[in-house]
Amino acid sequence: MRQQRNDLGWDEISHYSKIISDKVKELAEFQQAERIMIYLPFRNEVDTAYLLTADKKYALPVIDENKLLICEYSQDLVKNRYGIFEPQDRKEVAVDLIIVPGLAFDRERNRLGYGKGHYDKLLPELNIPAIALAYDFQIVEKLPAEEHDIKMTKIVTEKRII
Fold first, then answer.
1. CATH number of the domain at 2-156, out of 3.40.50.10420, 3.40.30.10, 3.40.50.2300, 2.30.110.10?
2. 15 SS3 class
3. What is the DSSP-derived secondary structure letter of residue 161?
4. How far is CA 110 from CA 113, 136, 139, in A?
5. Which residues face 106 on adjacent strands?
6. How far apart are CA 134 and CA 132, in angstroms?
7. Taking a C-beta distance cutoff of 8 angstroms, is the pair 128, 95 a contact?
8. Cα torsion for 77, 83, 84, 87, to the nearest 10°?
9. What values do phi and psi take at 38, rounded to 5?
10. 19, 22, 35, 55: least surrounded by Cβ within 10 Å?
11. pLDDT tens digits, residue range 65-103?
12. Residue 63: left (phi > 0), alpha (psi -120 to 50), or beta?
């Protein structure tokens, strides 16, 4: 899955990301949310920049020790130890919706992340909708799921909404 995503060119990423973002903006969960936690794309993930055109307040995840903090979106960004940009000022905020990245997903809305479990720890604490963004090739028949794994509210690809 990682290799397929890495093989995408910028034109494909941009094209698919725009389609996916347009679909997300039409979702009731997005329209009703006042502040949304997005992620900044890493290693050819679906680009969230197109979501920033909506008139919303935004937040970004910040990795602190072994947990995710939800911090106010800022243009003043620094790279963390994984090479992912996050706000330098760690002003924590509440959000109404979380936009989630991932490596693979299945039709039952299970998510395979990157192995650290950050989102699986954060999501149960918040009890708010979690919308995953993915390229359609990232949807597989079935992923192994454990009790602590959190299902996404919806998964949005360039071809469908699950």
1. 3.40.50.10420
2. helix
3. B
4. 10, 14, 10
5. 140
6. 6
7. yes
8. -20
9. -110, 175
10. 55
11. 878 999 999 889 999 888 889 999 899 999 999 999 999
12. beta
